[in-house]
Amino acid sequence: MHEEKHFTSSDLIKDIVIGMSDGLTVPFALAAGLSGAVASNSIVITAGIAEVVAGSIAMGLGGYLAGRTEVDHYQTEIARERLEVEAVPEVEKQEVRDVFSSYGISPGLQDQLALELSQDKNKWVDFMMRFELGMEKPDVRRASRSAFNIGASYIVGGMVPLIGYFITNTPKQGLLVSSIMTVMFLLIFGYVKTRLTGNRPFYGAVKTVFIGVLAAGAAYLIARLIS
Amino acid sequence: MHEEKHFTSSDLIKDIVIGMSDGLTVPFALAAGLSGAVASNSIVITAGIAEVVAGSIAMGLGGYLAGRTEVDHYQTEIARERLEVEAVPEVEKQEVRDVFSSYGISPGLQDQLALELSQDKNKWVDFMMRFELGMEKPDVRRASRSAFNIGASYIVGGMVPLIGYFITNTPKQGLLVSSIMTVMFLLIFGYVKTRLTGNRPFYGAVKTVFIGVLAAGAAYLIARLIS
Q: What pTM was computed for the model?
């Protein structure tokens, strides 16, 4: 297929941008929330780093294992299709006809297609996976590399909102510096992220900042209320 | 299509289980990390709740907006396909032939298919979206409902690891109770989550617990080192 026509950006850059903009959001909001409730920057920093560690492992390892699960799932389904093609070929041929019937293909052509497809059982099964079940063959290497890149970028992104607390003396000052830096970075990464997926980048930038600011504001208010 | 044959579980239950098992992981790890670094349960609880608030907003709102973006992206691509079908119909017909050629369909049948498909431009465009680009029409209502359900379940899941710190007096005791409760819940939700997606549930349960424990262990060690 030639999806390249519609997507030209590098997968690595995409992973980095996704991981960084996610990494900016939750650690920023957590630090903002704590800064309204505790007296010292060191607690905010410790909590922030603990979150970055936990989040990057959950995201990276979670993504890696989800990729493996997707491969398992594909294997299970393809095994089932292989069985069905052997055991109930007429049912499977009818399924081929149904796929094409919904696109207005004539019954005569549907029959010919079902017949030709059934000549090569491997290709028939591949066809059913993609066109009946809408499942693409997952690329397990790509999935693990992607999970690693996103997890690592989450760490880098997550350090940005914490810098404000490193270079100031009180949580209040820290929150100010952290907010300015994080909003700037969220704008940039939101813009790049949306641009890479082929949508309106300004809208994406505003959206990404909006999520971050809303999460931080809510965390701040609730942490103040309960502390 | 009849994907129902392969997936029978309710979407709502799936969202709840995903949100809960994610909600259990990061707040658990954050609280565990902090419990090795601070002297009072109240800081652990404040940080945990701030994380749950931030995480659920990032996840729920992020998921909702991602769903909207997916719809925008589909609209952009379908507009492009409509243009191509009008402007360069012969190129698009060749693309139809290419799709079927890879499944071993004879050139004669490829030509007939391209010809029949080109009779109804709406169906032709739908066909190209699904079979050339592999894009399904996104269901925007489903996406927002799902984002809300996952975000809300994240909150419920995130409260479980914090209970341990509510009912004990020191972070050390809190960590013990929190770990026992969270591991139990992660086992259950990991099992259910994997079962719902049609894979080996015991493996899924172990995997989910493994991610949670690794994230918590790493957060604990690093928080101790820096505090």
A: 0.82
List chain B pLDDT tens, one digit each, 227 residues: 344 444 445 778 888 888 888 899 999 999 999 999 998 999 999 999 999 999 999 888 888 887 777 888 888 889 999 999 888 888 888 888 888 888 888 888 888 888 888 888 888 888 888 888 878 888 878 878 888 898 999 999 999 999 999 999 999 999 999 999 999 999 998 898 888 776 678 888 998 899 999 999 999 999 999 87
| CB neighbourhood size of B214 (10 A) | 16
Residue B148 in tokens: 């809300």
Q: Is the pLDDT of residue A213 over 50?
A: yes
Do the beta carbons of residue B114 and residue B90 sit within 8 Å? no
A96: nearest Cα among B194, B74, B131, B95: B131
Contact B214, A57 (CB under 8 A): yes
Q: Do B50 and A58 touch (CB under 8 A)?
A: no
Residues B168, B172: Cα–Cα separation, whole Å: 9
d(CA B118, CA B122): 9
Residue pLDDT, tens place only, A48-59: 999 999 999 988
The two tokens of residue A29 are 């909001």
Q: Is A198 helix (H, G, I), strand (E, B) or coil?
A: coil
Minimal C-alpha gap between B27 and chain A (Å): 8
Q: How many CB atoms lie within 10 A of CB B32?
A: 30
Q: Which of A20, A69, A74, A155 to mutate to test the interface with B (most CBs of B within 10 A)?
A: A69
**How far B94 CA sits from the closest chain A CA (Å)?**
12
